[in-house]
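[User] I have long wanted to understand how a fold can be written as tokens. Those tokens are not coordinates but codes from a learned vocabulary of shapes. Could you go through the record with me and say what the backbone is doing? Thank you; the sequence and its tokens follow:
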Amino acid sequence: MKYSLIIPCYNKASRIEMMFWRLVNGTTPKEDFEVILIDGGSTDDLSKAIDSFKDSLNIIYIDTCYGRWENPARPRNIGYKLACGKYSIMLDADYLPAEDLLEQFGKSLYDDYFDICYGYAVDSSFGVGHSEKVFRNNVRLYKDKEQIEIYKLPIKTMARVLMIPMNGPMPEWLFCVKTDTIKQIRAYDEDYGQGYGKEDTDIFRRLEVVCPKRVYNPDASCIHIYHKSAGPDGQRNAQRNISLLNSKSIGLPDNVVRNNSGWGDLGNGKILYSYKSLV
């Protein structure tokens, strides 16, 4: 297995369907990647969406039983802990990956010469961004025959069609890293709280320490169609997280490993489905 795709999710069944459709119709064979979906206790039709793709993707479906997230790092770390691919990629549940995303990452890694490859995240504006409004008002689910063509477009073309501002590159939001390397540093720091967490900036700085051979490929791309506003609580957490980031960054490179030895453990969660049990 070459790639593990790690996808935290909460009540985003329709967006998971769109993402899975693009993965199924992408340029990378099913045998080359697994999809690890970490659910925070969704109350929508996520399980039905997953059922419809079990035959076409290698899926591991985990229910953490949290009811949303304790912090943004925890579900990601559960995915990294279980990852079996040589490389791992973390995707938000509302990413639309380019049809050749994995192929582009593979080209840039040059037979494993590089430790990490950064991609290009085409991001919507924060809050209920313009791209989200476009999706709500004009784009029905991919099952609509007329709209299915939109999801076949290259990402940057799609961005123009949907009038999404190109606020990239966002290397902290899209990267392909050797799984053993991110496990070595125990992945995302779980001290960061909800809101504008700064956990992305933190892991970006730590990976620079342990990944001396880095490359950037703007054609390894995704659209991030929605970024929810953090709200008042999130804004308060953001101030705390900024202070935390500043204090922890002072200690680099010595404190590159974070969390305790129980990082990424399932706790009370459970694996509801795994393609491995069928092999």
